[in-house]
């Protein structure tokens, strides 16, 4: 008998970028940094990381080097922000929570970069860890 790993399909708004992440995520956090705000146009960004080897792509995002060695992936058609990764570390890929077809399956563990969080997020989620 074989154990099937859960599969987490996802993609961008228009469907031009599609992926399937298999197994359980390495972790997931809410990011309150300014670069993620610019990347997404949203006040906070939530990412879940999967091992790169656990991800299969039907079509990959176009990557932009937002800072040296750090790449953010966007759909070349609709512009959805899909991924974040380190160029020198292919052990994991961060996926934006909203790109998963069923994002309700995941629960973030921490709020990060709270020192740069917007005032409206002060005191949010007091039951999980916060880091400046
Ligand atoms: Zn798209």
TrEMBL record:
SUPFAM superfamilies named among the record's database cross-references: Mss4-like
The UniProt record lists the keyword Lyase: yes
InterPro entries hit by this protein: CENP-V/GFA, Mss4-like_sf
Pfam families recorded: GFA (PF04828)
Keywords tagged on the record: Lyase, Metal-binding, Zinc
Ranges that cross the membrane: none
Every CENP-V/GFA domain range: 8-122
Family per record: Belongs to the Gfa family.
PANTHER family xref list: CENP-V_GFA DOMAIN-CONTAINING PROTEIN-RELATED, GFA DOMAIN-CONTAINING PROTEIN
Name of the protein in question: GFA family protein
């Amino acid at each position: 008998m074989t154990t099937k790993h859960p599969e987490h399909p996802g993609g961008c708004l228009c469907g031009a970028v599609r992926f399937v992440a298999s197994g359980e995520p390495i972790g997931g956090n809410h990011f309150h940094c300014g670069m993620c705000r610019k990347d997404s146009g949203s006040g906070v960004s939530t990412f879940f990381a999967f091992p790169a080897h656990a991800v299969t792509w039907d079509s990959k995002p176009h990557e932009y080097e937002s800072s040296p060695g750090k790449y953010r992936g966007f759909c070349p058609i609709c512009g959805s922000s899909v991924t974040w990764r380190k160029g020198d570390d292919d052990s994991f890929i961060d996926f934006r929570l909203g790109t998963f077809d069923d994002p309700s399956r995941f629960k973030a563990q921490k709020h990060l970069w709270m020192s740069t969080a917007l005032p409206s997020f002060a005191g949010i989620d007091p039951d999980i860890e916060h880091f400046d």
